[in-house]
Amino acid sequence: AEFLSLFSSSLCFWLTNPITFVLPTTLSSPWTVYLALSWTILASAIFCWIMSLLTGNLSQIDRLWSVLPPLYSLLITMLTGDKGGLNAVLSLVTVIWGSRLTLQFVWKGGYTLEGEDYRWAYVKDVFGGNKLVLHIFNLFFVVIYQSILLLLLVTPQLALIGEDMALTTLDTILAGIFLFLVAMETLADCQQQAFQRRKYSSNQVGEGDGEVRDGFVQSGLWSYCRHPNFLCEILIWWVFAMIPLSRVGCGWSLVGAVNLTGLFTGSQDLTEQISASKYPEYKRYQETVPAFIPSVRMMTIKRRD
C-alpha cells in the first residue's frame, strides 16, 4: 500500500511538473530512484515494441543493451546527489563497458534495419509461424523483461545511497577486475570476429584450416571454454554487485546479476543447439571443452602446449 501510494503521488507530480519528469530532484531512497527512472524503462519498452512491429526486426532491445546501463548509472549518480569517489568510479566503468560494446555492435552492423540476431530465425521456427504468440513472447520476455533487467544491472549503486562514498582498496581492486573482464571479453569478441573473417574468406565450411573446416572458432580463449564472452559478461556484473555487497551486505543488489546469469544460460543453450545442428564437429567440442569454467587440468595442458 505504501509503494502504491508513493507511485501514484510520484505519477501525479511528474504529470504536473514536466521538467522534473525529465530531471527529478535529488532522491534519497532506492524506491524513489526506481520510480524516477521508470519513465526510461517505459520509453525504451514502447520504442522497442513499436520498432519491432514496424520493421519485423525483433532485435530492438539489443540496440539499447549497451546504452541504457551506463545512462542509468549516470542518472543514479545525479539523482542521489552522491557524485564523489565511488559513484563516479562505478559510472566510469559502466560507461567504458557500454562504449566498448556499442562500438562492437556498430562494427557488426547491429544498428542497421536488417541487423537482427541470427537466433531469431530459429526462435520463429519454434513458434511455427504463429505471429501472435511470437509477438506476445517478444513483448513480455524480450521487450519488457529485458528493459527492466537493464536497470537491475546497476541496482547495486542504489544500495550505496546514504553510504560513505570514499574509495577503499577493495573498491579499487574490484573496479580493476571489472575492467580486466571487459578487456577479456573484448579479446574473446575480437578472436571470434577474426575467425569469422577467415571463415567467410573460404568458399564454404570444409575448406581452409582446421577450425575453418569445422565451421566454428576453437582457438585462443575459445579453447578454454565454449563461451568466454558470455562468461566475462556474467562475471562483470557479479563483480559490479560485489562492490556494495562488500560494504553494506545488501543481498538484493545481486538481483540483476542473478537474472543476467539465467538469461545468458538460456541463450547459451539455444546457441549451442543451433551450432550442433549446423556443424558435425561441434558435439566433439562440447565433449572436450567446458561451456563456461575451464578445468584446472585443461589450463595446465594448455600451458604445457
The radius of gyration is 21 Å
Q: Major beta sheet, specifics?
A: none
The coarse silhouette is: globular
Which structural class is indicated by helix and strand composition? mainly alpha
Instruction: Tally the helices.
Output: 13
Percentage beta strand:
under 5%
Q: What is the mean predicted local confidence, pLDDT?
A: 84
How does this structure look, described?
With 305 residues, the chain is mostly helical. The protein is 69% helix and 0% strand. The protein has helices spanning 2-16, 18-22, 30-55, 68-80, 85-107, 119-126, 131-152, 169-201, 210-214, 228-248, 255-278, 282-288, 296-304. Helix 1 packs across helix 3 (30-55) and helix 5 runs parallel beside helix 8. The N and C termini lie far apart (63 Å).
What tags apply to this protein structure?
305 residues, mainly alpha
Describe what is shown at a glance.
With 305 residues, this protein is mainly α. Helices cover 69% and strands 0% of the residues.
Topology:
Blueprint: H1 2-16, H2 18-22, H3 30-55, H4 68-80, H5 85-107, H6 119-126, H7 131-152, H8 169-201, H9 210-214, H10 228-248, H11 255-278, H12 282-288, H13 296-304
Helix pairs in contact: 1-3, 3-7, 4-5, 5-8, 7-11, 8-10, 10-11
